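Notebook, p. 212. Picked up where the previous page left off. The plan for this session was modest: take the two constructs that came back from the sequencing core last week, fold each one, and keep the raw output in the notebook itself so nobody has to go hunting through shared drives later. Recording the first one now, exactly as returned: residue sequence, then the structure token string.
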Amino acid sequence: MYKKFLHEDKQGETACLQDNKENNLSLAHVLKSISDDKSLSLFQLIANVNSNGEIILKKLDLTRKQYYSKISIMMKSGLIKRQNGKYYLTPFGKVIYCCTTIAKNALDNYYNLKAIEATEVSGLPNEEIGKIIDVLIDNNNNNF
């Protein structure tokens, strides 16, 4: 069974319900739309700054064709929308953006997470493992 998702118009009213199957949306399709470094950077720039295209083109060193191709794919994936000449994240795009932020934080703390993993199989008492985890996470509290 395919889950329904909501598209809202400018006034926030329900415009329509669409079936994921009808739109050919899949997790793989959505992730593929932001899978290369420049697409992900573009997606993050749209999330963080409501810049116009010219600024983004220069910042990411994209040609116009590359820029609009990436934008088109993200729009078809339901991640972004265009309003008054600027691109914004859709509610769905905001959820995906939060997921990418969590994944980036995990990647930034990869070695701390590996250390936690090593303590779990070390045979140390749970109390000691808890202290080690607290130290590792407290040192990077802003990152999690």
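Okay, moving on. Second construct, recorded in the same format:
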Amino acid sequence: MRASCGSDDTPVAFAAALGGLDTLVFAGGIGENSPPVRSRICNGLKFLGIEIEEERNAAKEGVISAKSGRVVVRVIRTDEESMIATTVCRVLGLGMAS
């Protein structure tokens, strides 16, 4: 958990290159299903204007950002298995997966 939350500077580099953030999206696996990880990441990015409502985060709501924050923080449900199957079928020329 520490490597994925505390020492990776990639989100900060992206934010700097973009001149800040309007929206931060958590999706799939850990991003979608782990309120503690989302909280830890967002707490480390407060300097970007990210603030979350811990109650909304714990309830896995679609928008977990605080109204006072400058950045909208969203949690998006994904169907990773379906996306992988669709991509594999496209690459192999098998048509759409059902």
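Notes on construct two before I forget. Residues 36 and 58 are 8 Å apart (CA to CA).
Flagging for discussion at group meeting.
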